[in-house]
Amino acid sequence: MLQLKNSSKKIDTVFIVSLFVLFAITAILLILIGARQYRFTADSMNRNYEIRTTSSYLTEKVHQSDTITGVSVVNFSIGPALALTSKQNNQAYTTYIYYYDGSLKELFVKEDTAFTPSAGQTIVQLHGFAPEVMHTGLIRITFTDTQNKDHCIYLDVNAASGKEI
Predict the structure, then answer these.
(1) Of all helices (H) and strands (E), which one includes residue 79?
(2) Integer distance in angstroms from the first to the last C-alpha of the chain?
(3) What does DSSP assign to residue 47?
(4) In this structure, what are the phi and psi dihedrals at residue 111, rounded to the nearest 5 degrees?
(5) N or C, which end of the chain has less CB nearby within 10 Å?
(6) CA–CA dist 107, 94 (Å, integer)
């Protein structure tokens, strides 16, 4: 009879330890699955942020400067850039939007002022930026996000709402 009680206690102990181990393994698996899903969601949100921010920013900047001579594409030694011209107090200013050192940058300067590309303010991290004039009134801007995916937006310039400077 004494042996039966000891055997029963051993089985109870083994069962409880096995149940605890199973619980611990399940908890660890749930944590790993949750961490993987969180990482996927965070990466997706960052990628979407880059795309939305870049598209909205470029669209808004071009539409703000949508005048007869306000928007153009220029070529620098670092590559193509958007040049957005405006007048303030009878002085012409140009806002350059360009790609430099892994970032989309913006620089606001007096017209015909020399500048270095590093002087621009970083807008968003990218792997590429290429504006080009498709034909009169249409600019295509292609940019590459940090996941090396290309995105393209078309912007109508000198629209009916555009005004002369």
Answers:
(1) strand 79-88
(2) 105
(3) H
(4) -60, 140
(5) N
(6) 8
- H/E stretch holding 152 reads strand 150-156
Dist CA 142 CA 136 (whole Å):
18
d(CA 39, CA 82): 35
Task: Write the CB contacts of 155 (distance below 8 Å, at least 6 apart in sequence).
Answer: 58, 59, 62, 63, 138, 139, 140, 141
pLDDT digit string, tens, across residues 77-111: 889 999 998 888 889 899 999 999 999 999 999 98
How many residues appear in the chain? 165
Q: What is the pLDDT of residue 5?
A: 60
